[in-house]
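Protein chain data
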Amino acid sequence: MSARGIGPSRATRWVVAVVLIGLFLVPIVSMIEYTTRDGSGGHSLVNWLALFDPANESKYRPIWVGLGNSLVLALVSVAIVLFLLAPTMVLISLRFPGLRRIFEFLVLLPISIPAIVLVVGLAPIYLVIGRTFGTGIWTLAFAYGITVLPFAYRAIQASIDATDMKTLAEAARTLGAGWPTILGRVLAPNLRPGLLAASLISVAVVLGEFTIASLLNRQNLQTALVVVGKQDPYASVILSLLALAFAFVLLVVIGRAGAARRTSKGRS
């Protein structure tokens, strides 16, 4: 039987596409319709404009504080992925390939641990972190760095598997390059799609995380939305839509960056 014979028909693909698009669009359209209700049976942008009204600054201040904290956490988490996880994976791939399975097991382990169990284990550690580094919001990135490991690992490992790391590293070493140069100017550009995808996933996970921040009494975007949502349900839905739009724009930007990279390589 040919490959074409066992594949789905054109009609089946259209049905699947329409169903998937509907699953995404129906909740989003419903959220937009809900946020435009003005309380008099009509629709307007009054709820959207109220969110940015200086007169409501104190009411919505937890949201902006939480958003700022989440962006800081996303930045630190991405730094952990790019400057700790990625170099470690490159090192294991080049020097210690026998450790790959053990490292993979350890990195993927957090995905099987419920967040509540993770917090119970992290609570005593955060007592020490609080005494050593203070209780700044950025310290929560240590926990977030653990939660994003399984997702970031898969993205980076796919790029590593698609790249002849050993040949590139040996060629650079033959030309006299040191390891910082090899990592930054030889291997990193070839791993860019995986690094960009890992960064995007890390940002998305951090912006959507609630359980760890809530149980450790830290304020991020999701905990702030819960607090403000008890007073103004429209605000939490509007911020959720904006967060979704931000993730979509980030995905498009990263996709275009990866496409531009592939185009430049093809021309060269």
User: Anything to note?
Assistant: The chain has a mean pLDDT of 84. The chain is about 80% helix and 0% strand.
